[in-house]
Amino acid sequence: MAERVRIVDVASLAGVSTATVSRALSAPETVGPATRKKVMEAVRTTGYRINSAARDLRQRRARSILILAPNLSNTFFSRIFAAIQEEAGAVGLTVQISDSRIGRDKLVSLGYDGRADGIVLLDGNIDPEVVNGWNLPLVQLSEWNESYDAPRLVFDNPAAARLAVDHLADLGHRALLHVSGPAENVLAETRRAGFLEAAAARAVSAEVFDGDFTLAAGAEAARRWAGLAERPTGVFCASDECALGFISECGRLGVSVPRDVSVIGFDDIDFADHFLPALTTIRQPREEMGRQAARMIVAMLEGQGAAAGATGAPIAPELVVRGTTLPACPAAARSEAAAEG
Amino acid sequence: MAERVRIVDVASLAGVSTATVSRALSAPETVGPATRKKVMEAVRTTGYRINSAARDLRQRRARSILILAPNLSNTFFSRIFAAIQEEAGAVGLTVQISDSRIGRDKLVSLGYDGRADGIVLLDGNIDPEVVNGWNLPLVQLSEWNESYDAPRLVFDNPAAARLAVDHLADLGHRALLHVSGPAENVLAETRRAGFLEAAAARAVSAEVFDGDFTLAAGAEAARRWAGLAERPTGVFCASDECALGFISECGRLGVSVPRDVSVIGFDDIDFADHFLPALTTIRQPREEMGRQAARMIVAMLEGQGAAAGATGAPIAPELVVRGTTLPACPAAARSEAAAEG
DNA sequence: TGGTGTGTTGAAATCGATTACATCAAAGCG
DNA sequence: CGCTTTGATGTAATCGATTTCAACACACCA
Q: Total structural domains in chain A?
């Protein structure tokens, strides 16, 4: 429990003023070489470390950014967090994380208490009044909300849905099911809309089940699907977790994927490739997205609002074809009818 | 871009001194009811929010804890993070995350720059000199290191390994394989040692492959296992990811789990239950662990070092039997021998 | 009536850095 | 040689809160 070393201690040991120590550390070229050496030596022997509260107060900034996400334990986010932290850490920024589903008042405070000087927002369901009330640099990532007055970095969800539908239609599936996310979620909305539109364009029949992106929702959807008189043979899930839950429940129901039904997921999480069978899915480059969002925030912090209208093109989707999709087999599709006849 | 409201603004509007405003906010019972009301009113109309840099500086604390983990994108951690954040957020603490594999100098700074007043450490491979040099409340979680002078909250890995071995032995498996984690990792070490000890106690043959907890390592181990003349019929993997990778690769090799080989994982991640077949594994209560670690840190922050020697009993393991383990089938086990004869 | 305690309040010091401004020496220049 | 410029350094103000200490009013009690 050594007493904390302050800048005055370094200054007195080096025989200079605190101003000089401060300068030697943050703008070495402005002090004489001899002085600089003395100061550095004193810093070393005292083991001085800056007190950031003091510096932050004086400089009116926190050297910290905040990541706000609706569910920290969602595995979809972890790689994004890692990328943001890496990118931000490289330029000396601390990274805070917080669940965005805390009380409204706490949420308001986050933008005002001066503990963060930028926010990466992964939640599109916060009251716009709260979000626009923060006057901090802000970027929306993945989820977004038209009412937020901030640049965003989003994935091209409609194009992704089209890719999925085209893939299934190309394989000959004429009846498709989409297991969607929660109704009030933009990602779910745009994927659902994209699905319906693409299905119409390909003239295939389209049905939608509501879900919430989770494994459990996928399993539930599988049970509903199994109870259908006419089972769609192509299923497009709004998340990989959901798709995996669907397939897993199919296994319990004695339905084989992809023989009896083709399933395609969304995200390309790590497990997608190691599931049995490996999941056909739409890849979202999560690491790249996190990295880019971090860079946007950093640019805004430095350029002071420079990137305000910098909402660029959406991130392009990529279809990853693996083992859960197969050409529609007319025989299999009609097996029940055959059994009846 | 409204000018930031300061405490003096509130004070002058309310017609009192800043001291009174400060007291009205942090110790309301010490100011008169009439004054309190005036102040609260002024706070409301001005929209005053405290500047935490100023408060932190004066109070010499940061109201923030830091989570340090060796790999932020590891899905095993996400639920732990969420639990810590929830618990810490409830008592007004901010949560920072950082990868622990940043440079040594940056690591040293973390304990000294005053931005965090407590650390939850999930990495046992940091130089003890660095860790013990921080004079901040610290708790070790999950991973640990004997040289760190700090309380820890750990999982009972030897007992867990015993549980796994006993389960396989009870099912009649006489030859076991353990796919371990990296050599320098305490978790891997203790699981490996527990495995060998338990196998000896049950008089079953035991082999160990090195790995690193990842899906890829599991797949690699499956290939090695498949090349063995005498394949162990019971496999205990040091992580669920590893087990899933093993099973997934088995599928590609035409080997069936659990018919040809029983596999047991470690962690009970969310996917374990939705994998096909569902993974038999050892459960680590990650949420509970995070929550408890957060409470330890909070207690240390309040009680100032009270919980110094509070390293309690290790968390008890729980075996979750699902679909990847089956009784050893002598016929299957000897099928190759039979084919030769 | 005077002394003591109690409850409220304000003035000013304080936390530990950064930085605007002043100072001073040395150098450059006609 | 005197005057300006430049570079290095120190002094002191500043960031915005908290907190110590003193002051004061009032009640209570002997």
A: 3
Distance B296 CA to D1 C1' (A): 76
Q: Which residues does chain A have within 8 Å of residue B62's beta carbon, measured at their own beta carbons? A: 53
Beta bridge partners of B139: B120
Residue A127 token pair: 């009251």
Identify which of A273, A261, A264 has the alpha carbon closest to the alpha carbon of residue A243: A264
Asked if residue B57 is part of any domain, the answer here is: no
How far is the first Cα of chain A from the last one, in angstroms, to the nearest whole number?
Answer: 85
Q: In this structure, are A143 and A231 located in the same domain?
A: no
Is A89–B98 a contact, with Cβ atoms under 8 angstroms apart? yes
pLDDT of B331 over the 80 cut: no
User: Which range of residues forms the domain containing residue B164?
Assistant: 157-280+321-340
The count of CB pairs under 8 A between chains A and B is: 152
Look up tokens 């394949």; give the residue: B231
CA distance A216 to A197: 27
Bases along strand C below 7 A from a protein CB: 7-12, 14-20
Looking at every residue in chain A, the average pLDDT score rounds to 92
**pLDDT tens digits along B25-63:** 999 999 999 999 999 999 999 999 999 999 999 999 999
Chain B contact set for A119 (CB, 8 A): none
At A96-138, the pLDDT tens digits run 999 999 989 899 988 888 899 999 999 999 999 999 999 899 9
Q: Give pLDDT tens digits for A129-144.
A: 999 999 899 999 999 9
Instruction: With respect to residue A239, please indicate whether it lies within any of the assigned structural domains.
Output: yes
SS3 (DSSP) at A88: helix
Give the domain CATH number at A37.
1.10.260.40
Strand D footprint, Cβ within 7 Å: A 15-20, 23, 30-32, 34-36, 54, 57-58, 60; B 4, 6-8, 18-19, 21-23, 25-26, 48, 50-51, 54-55, 57-59
Residue A103 C-alpha from the chain's centroid: 22
Domain shared by B291 and B327, yes or no: no
Based on the fold, state whether residues B124 and B82 are members of the same structural domain.
yes
